[in-house]
Design goal:
Number of strands: 20
Shape: globular
Number of helices: 23
Structural class: alpha+beta
Distance between the termini: 28 Å
Radius of gyration: 27 Å
Largest sheet: 11 strands, antiparallel
């Protein structure tokens, strides 16, 4: 049952992910902040002692590079205005005479209208935490900007400029007091091991954690700074409780790299700006804090809904469900396949039941921009590639790719509940191996739903390894299976099984089972991966497997129906984008090698069934997409949400917003900056 529309409210389009707002007939005429489609580069060259030196605006990156030196710092900025007529385009400016530049933020651009009232005021949108740049030509206007910052408790830095040079120390906001709690926690890290190389890495991690925490408290919004400090503390606890040196080494190496990237990208614009160092160079002056906020908001939004459902914990609770026998032998029309097993946390019968799901931290903890990786998760960290700064408006670099990486974290949690405890490199190491072998060989009959699912998954591993009969997975072909052999089988096929289940999970939860949206998104995004042509067959099987989930109740035809759907959408992509050779290759594989593809997808049907039946929840998915059905009399699009315009209402569903404004088009830096800014200030229900 969907909630009714309340009286006196207009309903924003669900496809745009905007919340209900009170009806205001005058709001339609209030001018909206808009950004130019031409970026400008704010360039500063530091003086001999590192103090601020010359400042100028350059319209093109080529003109910035022409005079680039070791003391040069630059950031791309976008002209802002209330009307197109007043929108200043990219022009060179050496600031002759006396001027004031104020960098302030973080703040939604729609909230700085008052600062643009003086006729000579100019403003730009930046991608740093100080995301608004105001140019004033008289001291009264400059003072008004400072009063605004102090009245709204914004971070700021103001430069007074004479003939293109900063002539006095910057006027800055006060730094926030240090957090002693995180300092005391991190200091203990250096005492947990006597291993000198590891101890050195732990010291580096503690130092970069403190740096990130202090800088974020000085410039980032409170919720972001709290996230950074909380993440550092949780990672510290994780390292302290971990006893295996190899695992400690992996955790501390990945976490340190993430924090170093966070400091170099997001926190480069911490005041005093001229004393911070940033990378990449074209965002080295003000940093990329807005993009980092957008990533953190998207991650937190997903974790608030899917993470708080505690799917792995609910799965473990299946141990109390009565015996049902072997899932591999159940007919496809058995009621078990259509029952709902996962529910959202708010639907649990009691507070006690909700508490039983646990409150342990939900990973990944840290999000950051990466210069070397594509979209990637380590389980503890989540990264997006730097090209999203200029290209996330296009499907090739869509931020929806993050949902695939986040899905990995949930499926890893599921495997922790289902598989024997093992390391992909060391094999099975716990007593769970005996139960696993007994379930596989049929010596132990599953006496609860959890063991039935566990048996179903393990038999699928054996099928992929060629150790069982695909027509009758419960019949073991190779005898004398021991824990070492099972560990090797699981290790060898772990990545493939993971990817199949992640694709199905991602497709059902984050794309709502919509093939056109899903296929277009993932196949365009794969086009920017190096050597993608060598992996087309793997990607094709995963795509078909995901779409099979829509028709899994009809196993005799599900693969063929999925094939036809996938092929039709791939052909449409190929015809519209002749340069995407990997898409053309996928169509060719379907047409010429279908027998092999069908066989491989068929062996993976149990994996699809596990996700669709035991891990998917329609109620949780509905919360992700903010299902609200308007009354017919109020059905209209919200006129505020248009590309390159900043409305008063925040985005409520980041997923719906990204989907609405990401398309198969050429990358545009202005559209990408607008998308990142809108996401950075989306509805903060989880602060």
């Amino acid at each position: 049952m969907h909630p009714p529309t309340r009286a006196g409210a207009t309903l924003s389009s669900r496809s745009y992910g905007i919340r209900l707002v009170p009806y205001d007939p005058f709001k339609l005429y209030r001018p909206k902040m808009i950004i130019s489609d031409n970026s400008t580069h704010l360039l500063i060259t530091l003086g001999p002692s590192g103090a601020p030196g010359s400042v100028r605006l350059e319209p093109h990156s080529s003109s910035v590079l022409a005079d680039w030196g070791p003391a040069s710092r630059s950031s791309a900025i976008f002209p802002l205005a209330l009307t197109k007529e007043r929108l200043s385009h990219s022009v060179a400016n050496n600031f002759p005479g006396r001027h004031w530049l104020t960098m302030l933020g973080p703040i939604p651009p729609s909230r700085v209208r008052a600062l643009l009232l003086p006729p000579d005021s100019q403003a730009w949108l930046a991608l740093g935490f100080l995301n608004i740049v105001i140019h004033s030509k008289d001291p009264a206007s400059a003072d008004a900007v400072l009063r605004y910052c102090r009245d709204h408790t914004l971070q700021f830095e103001q430069w007074e400029i004479l003939d293109g040079k900063v002539i006095s120390p910057p006027n800055t906001s006060d730094r926030i007091a240090r957090d002693r709690a995180i300092r005391d926690t991190l200091v203990t890290l250096t005492t947990i091991t006597d291993d000198e190389p590891l101890n050195g890495l732990l010291s580096d991690f503690a130092a970069i954690s403190l740096t990130a925490s202090e800088l974020s408290r000085a410039i980032a919004p409170t919720w972001f700074a709290s996230d950074v400090s909380h993440s550092c503390i949780q990672l510290s606890h994780h390292l302290t409780s971990e006893k295996d040196p190899h695992t400690q080494f992996t955790i501390v190496t990945n976490s340190t790299a993430a924090l170093e990237s966070l400091c170099c990208h997001a926190l480069a614009g911490a005041s005093p700006i001229h004393q911070s160092s940033g990378h990449p160079r074209f965002y080295s002056l003000l940093g990329t804090g807005i993009a980092e906020m957008a990533l953190a908001r998207l991650r937190a939004f997903v974790q608030e809904i899917v993470g708080e459902a505690r799917i792995p914990s609910q799965l473990k609770g299946f141990a109390s469900r009565p015996v049902i026998g072997s899932l591999a032998r159940l007919p496809t029309d058995d009621p078990i396949w259509t029952e709902t097993y996962i529910i959202d946390r708010s639907s649990l019968a009691s507070a006690t039941a909700a508490a039983d799901l646990g409150s342990e931290p939900i990973y990944p903890l840290l999000t950051y921009l990466s210069d070397i990786d594509h979209f990637r998760t380590t389980g503890l960290t989540l990264s997006a590639p730097r090209p999203i700064l200029t290209s996330c408006n296009s499907l090739s670099w869509t931020l929806l790719t993050l949902t695939h990486e986040i899905s990995h974290c949930f499926i890893d949690g599921v495997f922790n509940a289902l598989l024997p405890e093992f390391s992909p490199t060391d094999g099975i190491i716990s007593g769970d191996a005996a139960l696993a072998l007994s379930l596989i060989e049929g010596a132990t009959r599953p006496d609860n739903l959890l063991d039935s699912i566990r048996q179903y998954l393990l038999l699928t591993f054996l099928t992929l390894a060629g150790k069982s009969d695909a027509g009758n997975p419960s019949r073991l072909i190779v005898k004398n299976l021991d824990s070492d052999k099972l560990a090797n089988i699981i290790t060898r096929h772990y990545e493939e099984v993971t990817e199949i289940m992640v694709h199905v999970f991602d497709f059902l939860y984050f794309y709502r089972g919509q093939p056109q949206k899903y296929i277009s998104s993932i196949w365009h995004s794969w086009g920017v991966i190096p050597d993608v042509g060598n992996r087309v067959s793997f990607y094709l099987i995963r795509t078909i497997a995901a779409v099979v989930a829509l028709h899994i109740s009809d196993p005799g035809n599900s693969i063929y129906r999925a094939r036809d759907i996938v092929r039709a959408h791939l052909v449409a992509i190929r015809d519209a984008n002749p340069g995407l050779a990997h898409v053309a290759k996928a169509v060719s594989l379907i047409d010429n090698d279908w027998a092999l593809i069908e066989e491989r997808v068929g062996h993976r049907l149990p994996l699809i069934q596990i996700v669709k039946t035991f891990l998917y929840s329609e109620s949780v998915s509905a919360q992700l997409h903010r299902d609200i059905v308007p009354s017919r009399s109020r059905r209209k699009l919200d006129p505020q949400i248009r590309p390159n315009r900043f409305p008063d209402a925040p985005v409520e569903s980041p997923l719906e917003f990204i989907d609405s404004f990401t398309s198969n088009c050429a990358p545009r830096s202005d559209h990408s900056a607008w998308i990142l800014t809108m996401l950075a200030f989306c509805e903060p229900r989880y602060d």
